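Help needed: design a sequence for this.
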């Protein structure tokens, strides 16, 4: 794909694996969690390398097979009693620390823009402000879980705002892919997410980031105001 500098896919691949590792630690070192996530990455790697996602004129787009299974899984975890039990076993402090990887993701997106594989609007020079989540995550982790100086309300608001920032870039990214319903980035469309390893962004990294927020919000809501972890 456009002969990207080798460091771009390597750094993104390592960022994805780091995301999985941090989530594995948040799950109290659940081997089942780790194997499922690694298996999902491997499956999507094979599918992507076959060129399956590069055909963008199908209806519905094949692209939905990247994110939809993960979203359905997240929904089921919140619906099924065993799923909710699993969510409650996750460590919200580690889940909060997971969001630091969004800084690396934003750097990769910027490099992809420079190499003309995504539009500028998907970077922090455009409409993407998601880097704020990554930069503030260590502060929320430290003052919220270590120093215990942030109120439950502040942490809830932070998580909600960060979900909003995530939704913003996801919507802009999808509408920049050269699908039949493309709305943005016509001069330089979002094609990177159709190739390996960048399909790992919509199939794994984004869902884990979203799930981390939702799970943390559940933890926060289950605690009384003024009660710390």
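Sure. Designed sequence:
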């Amino acid at each position: 794909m456009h002969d990207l500098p080798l460091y771009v896919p390597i750094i993104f691949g390592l960022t994805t694996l780091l995301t999985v590792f941090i989530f594995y630690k948040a799950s109290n070192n659940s081997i089942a969690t780790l194997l499922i996530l690694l298996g999902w990455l491997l499956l999507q790697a094979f599918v992507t390398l076959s060129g399956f996602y590069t055909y963008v004129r199908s209806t519905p787009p094949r692209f939905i097979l990247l994110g939809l299974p993960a979203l359905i899984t997240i929904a089921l975890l919140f619906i099924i009693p065993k799923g909710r039990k699993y969510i409650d076993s996750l460590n919200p402090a580690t889940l909060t620390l997971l969001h630091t990887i969004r800084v690396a993701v934003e750097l990769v997106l910027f490099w992809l823009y420079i190499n003309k594989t995504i539009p500028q609007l998907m970077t922090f020079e455009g409409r993407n402000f998601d880097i704020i989540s990554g930069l503030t995550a260590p502060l929320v982790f430290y003052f919220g879980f270590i120093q215990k100086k942030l109120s439950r309300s502040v942490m809830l608001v932070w998580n909600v705002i960060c979900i909003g920032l995530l939704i913003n870039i996801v919507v802009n990214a999808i509408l920049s892919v050269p699908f039949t319903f493309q709305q943005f980035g016509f001069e330089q469309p979002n094609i990177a997410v159709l190739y390996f390893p960048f399909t790992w962004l919509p199939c794994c990294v984004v869902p884990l980031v979203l799930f981390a927020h939702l799970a943390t919000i559940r933890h926060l809501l289950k605690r009384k105001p003024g009660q710390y972890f």
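The two ends are 46 Å apart (CA to CA).
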